[in-house]
Amino acid sequence: MSRSVRVVWDDKLTSYDFGPGHPLAPVRVELTMALARELGVLDRVELSGCVPASDDELALVHTRDYIEAVKRVSATGEPDMSVGLGPGDTPAFAGVHEASALITGATLAAARAVWSGEAEHAVNVAGGLHHAMAGYASGFCVYNDPGVAIAWLLAQGARRVAYVDVDVHHGDGVQSMFAHDPRVLTISLHETPRVLFPGTGFPEETGADGTAVNVALPVGCGDAGWLRAFHAVVPPLLREFAPEVLVTQHGCDSHALDPLAHLMLSVDGQRRAYAALHDLAHETAGGRWLVTGGGGYELVRVVPRAWTHLIAEVAGHPIDPETPTPPGWREFAAERTGEVPPLTMSDGRSPEFRDFREGYDPADDVDRAIVATRKAVFPQHGLDPLD
């Protein structure tokens, strides 16, 4: 049971909007919060607001020149391709600085609550913009809110922070910011970069002292393989690293219905990952857990259910997967999107996996990915890669 949980929310977080037709549609977080509210999930948490991150806070990981360039784009809406803002994946829009700074401010508010002890766990589902780099926007991400939060925690005196990223895309921005800082362990489980943006995240990218960890999973990997890989890599490393704070990014674009990637997870498999990370936060980080959203582009059938399960898990009151989605929410979702909403909180799966310690199959693509990662980093943590 979690002692106290804070969910950071402001309706203005939906102003992070790249326009009609862009995959990162803000309606996904709007529908998530509406579903969580109707299911009573938000009754079990403390809701709090946020303010935009200051320039000094953004500059913990971003260059001052970049921040000023984003402000210029924000004032006019005119593209500046020198910093990666439109046209393309990350379009320019008027107000982009303010919208991006507010998302970062929300993640910082969550970090402050956890570090100060005001909350044991804290969530910003609008956050998780993990592709933004120090000096340019990338992959729908303008400011790197997990990176800013981690840097802020270090500035407050945290000696070890672990970051686990379960988005289908490699958490390249966060890795690049801390790859040579041994105080930060970054672990990313993602689809192989041989076929998916951003083209990084190979096992041999190990950073300082093996503190950058990458699990590159094969196309078509489903619940059983993904969970097998997660449990073969994440728990041993977190136990050995013993972070003071666990930061997790929960892009749900690993789902089989996501239009931008090729993994085959279900909402039920994703729930298992959330529960495992909750347990690990208590076991390895004294319960200090900072949670963000991330990618996810199936806006009605996947994101709202996945992240409502996430908030419920963080709150210590998981939702029965067989729970029907509320009729009022289904009507609202249909009105907002024209899509047919799901009827229950489950995909009807009961994910099971075979523990890696039961044996390694060299002919299996998932097992080969596991072994490549373990061989690359486990020895640097004093762990046996084949044990």
UniProtKB/TrEMBL annotation:
Keyword Glycoprotein: no
Pathway it works in: Ketone degradation; acetoin degradation
Keywords: Acetoin catabolism
InterPro entries assigned: AcuC (IPR003085), HDACs (IPR000286), His_deacetylse_dom (IPR023801), His_deacetylse_dom_sf (IPR037138), Ureohydrolase_dom_sf (IPR023696)
UniProt superkingdom: Bacteria
GO molecular function terms attached to this record: histone deacetylase activity
Compositional bias (Basic and acidic residues): 349-360
Coiled-coil segments on the chain, per record: none
Biological process according to GO: acetoin catabolic process; epigenetic regulation of gene expression
Region (Disordered): 337-360
Boundaries of every Histone deacetylase domain copy: 22-313
Family: Belongs to the histone deacetylase family.
Protein name: Acetoin utilization protein AcuC
